Amino acid sequence: MALSHIVQNFTTSAIRSLEIHSLRKAASLSAFDIQHKTPVTRKFNPLPKAQYGGRHTVTMIPGGGIGPELMHHLKEVFRVGGIPVDFELVQVDPKSGDNEDLEYAITSIKRNGVAIKGNIETGSMEAGVLSRNVALRNELDLYVSVLDCKSFPGVTSRHNNIDISIIRQNTEGEYAMLEHESVSGVVESMKVVTSVNAERLAKFAFEYAKKNNRKKVTTVHKANIMKYSDGLFLETCRRVSKRYPDIQHSDMIIDNCCMQLVSNPHQFDVMITTNLYGTIVSNVICGLVGGAGLFSGKNYGDHYAIFEPGTRNTGTAIAGKNIANPIAMLSASVDMLEHLGHMTHANILRSAIDTTVNVDKIHTADLGGKYETTDVIQNIMNLVLEATKSMKWKPLRRTLF
């Protein structure tokens, strides 16, 4: 069933009469189809993960700003550590006027199953310009974004001992890219929430909490005002929570949540949010515990995964100056290695990052330090090289989170 038909007949009775598979198809429409107003449904038939002789092939998308230089450093760290990952480099120019390069990237990710990327956003405010990050997530049905914000003991911050995981809806909500100018000077934007996507997000969040021994899940919403959209999201999370009696569930309105994060962040454990609220909450928490340069983000779907710096900042102003903080990108590569099952290499690299930040305190300027990007990278490579000399191998074990 075409998305246009659903939009034109957007009533409670009409939605309830739709079959579940029709909702799934509508929820997974291509971002390109939505943007160009000619929607078609797509069926995902993922290929096996690209693995040859124990080595994985991963799509690498440097993006703009500081992305290319950080990817160069990442490849050097992997080379020194003997990490069995090969990269298929795909250039996506944020300033490009067409989407051909983005289509190439999507094809590569579908082939390899996993990608690591910098920021590919256009930054354009012009109507009709496709959001590339949103398009990528929608096209691959990466319905959940995970951001783990845990304090670094070696970094001075407003609050200590913070450990919060944000599970964010990644493909709908206000970022469904359904907006238009009905008459001159009047713009309408549609916020889309489906029970199908809300339920699989909530299930992911509670399973994530269960797997990681988390005790509390908080749903962030604005259901007191947006009673239908956020009301559906909240009610779905409440329904799913009943399947997990050992995990406490609560909910909080987004504006109060932001205030509580600043004043008392330790009350939070795992947070479930819609798309826009997740963006806001993520940046607030990152600001509390050290900034955008420390934390990685994970994007998951049923078939594909993309890893990237958590706040998706391009860093154009500091590109080429050797002052960018590489920790977020390297942490994203650790998440990627864990996803691929290279646990030994992941543990070594994570330990090197922790030692560099917390013990050796090799900090870039954004953390109040005096060191350059290459100083951080060199220290990490030295630690990785030392650890690999006495490395004890463990069997390959692939994991989702």
From TrEMBL:
Q: Does the keyword Transit peptide apply?
A: yes
Q: Where is the Isopropylmalate dehydrogenase-like domain?
A: 57-380
Q: Name one Pfam family in it.
A: Iso_dh
Q: Which GO terms describe its biological process?
A: isocitrate metabolic process; tricarboxylic acid cycle
Q: InterPro entries, from UniProt?
A: Isocitrate_DH_NAD, IsoPropMal-DH-like_dom
Q: Where in the cell is it found?
A: Mitochondrion
One GO CC annotation, please?
A: mitochondrion
- Looking at the record's lineage, which domain of life comes first? Eukaryota
Protein's UniProt keywords contain Transit peptide: yes
Family membership noted in the UniProt record = Belongs to the isocitrate and isopropylmalate dehydrogenases family.
NCBIfam families on file: mito_nad_idh
**Protein name (Swiss-Prot/TrEMBL):** Putative isocitrate dehydrogenase
- Organism, by scientific name, is Rhodnius prolixus (Triatomid bug)
